[in-house]
Amino acid sequence: MNPRGTPILGTLTVIGAACLFALLGPISRFAGDLGVSPYAFVAWRSGVAALAIWLLVWIGLRRGGRLVGWRSLPPRDRVALGVAALAGASLDATMFLAYARVPVAIVLLGFYLFPAMVATASAVLGWEPIDRGRGIALLVALGGMVAVVVGGVGAAGIGSLDLIGVLLAIGSAVSQAVFILVSRNGYRQVPTDQAMGVVLPVSATIGVGLAIVSGHLADVWVPFSNPSLLALLVVGGVFAAAVPSFLFLAGVRRIGGVRAGILMLAQAPVGVALAALLLDEGIGPIQVAGGVAILAAAVIIQRTPSRPAALRAEAATA
By CB neighbour count within 10 A (0-12 exposed, 13-18 middle, 19+ buried), where does 140 fall? Predict the structure, then answer.
């Protein structure tokens, strides 16, 4: 593969993941209107996504691919993949618990701290220094994200804050940051599809557990009696979970955590646009300006010199 094409392809991969992840908002709203609790939705989303990913793995094996066994992995890679799976499950749990305690805007503001966390940790670890281009892109993107989120509700709409809810929202950002940092160089022997085939079932299991604890286990069976709801959850699991999860991990491996984190902020304006289109939620001028800022950040980070050639070559072999 041509190393020079790697940053462009990686950029498009992550932006594609962000756009598809943005579908989760409308799909979860529609599912909730049809009687599915948030925890049951997590279980269905991750469960369907896991089945779709393992179908992809099976197709790959039929075409001559090799299944990487757990015992064949070095101990360090086993730990890394286990941590990534737990981080993915923790992300879902903390985010949906935060939704129950604080406004959605606060959850998003807390969650989208993860690019800054990834950038700081990567710089401290000596992986990806925060040069001028990355620093400007990060600040512009975070500023645009705040405008997109807060511009939709206004300061008055945020209301009083629940400290536990805020901490849970920040916890979701920590989980995402851990997933990105661990996945950047960890368990590289495991193909992207097989890696997500481990991560997603763990999230589904956690979703079922939360449904049991919250007393909403019955909601898990509701889709079987409602064909429209079942179709919605299958579409959501495939196109708003399986496909973007695969693309996101592939993007992190290709262009690194800092670039991927900044580009993932595109999920905010795309989500707002989908909400306006599908849920009749208005878009204000501040949100438009925020979306433009995030797009500008994507252009800045794309024009910023990429990682050293050795790291680009390493990513190209993933």
Answer: buried
The answer to whether 17 touches 239, Cβ cutoff 8 Å, is: no
Alpha carbons 59 and 184: distance in angstroms, whole number: 25
Q: Which helix (H) or strand (E) holds 142?
A: helix 132-158
Tokens at residue 314, please? 């390493």
Give the integer Cα–Cα distance in Å for 228 and 155: 37
pTM over 0.90: no
Structure-token pair, residue 253: 């491996």
Burial pattern 64-80, b for ≥16 Cβ within 10 A else e, equals eeeebeeeebeeebbeb
Give the tokens for residue 41. Answer: 């939705």
- Kindly state the helix (H) or strand (E) to which residue 12 belongs, with its residue range: helix 6-21
- Regions of the chain short of the pLDDT cut 50: 1-5, 156, 308-318
CB atoms within 10 A of CB 222: 19
* Neighbour-count burial of 62, counting CB atoms closer than 10 A to its CB (0-12 exposed, 13-18 middle, 19+ buried): exposed
Q: And the tokens for 270?
A: 């795309």
State the Cα–Cα distance between residues 11 and 304, nearest whole angstrom. 12
Contact 141, 265 (CB under 8 A): yes
Total number of residues shown for the chain: 318
CA atoms within 13 A on the CB side of 213: 10
Can you say how many angstroms the Cα of residue 31 is from the centroid of all Cα atoms in its chain?
Answer: 20
Instruction: Name the residue with tokens 């039929």.
Output: 62
pLDDT tens digits along 156-206: 455 555 778 778 888 888 999 899 899 888 888 899 999 999 999 998 998
Between CA 142 and CA 105 the distance in angstroms is 14
pLDDT digits (tens, 9 = 90+) for 93-119: 887 777 667 666 667 677 777 888 888
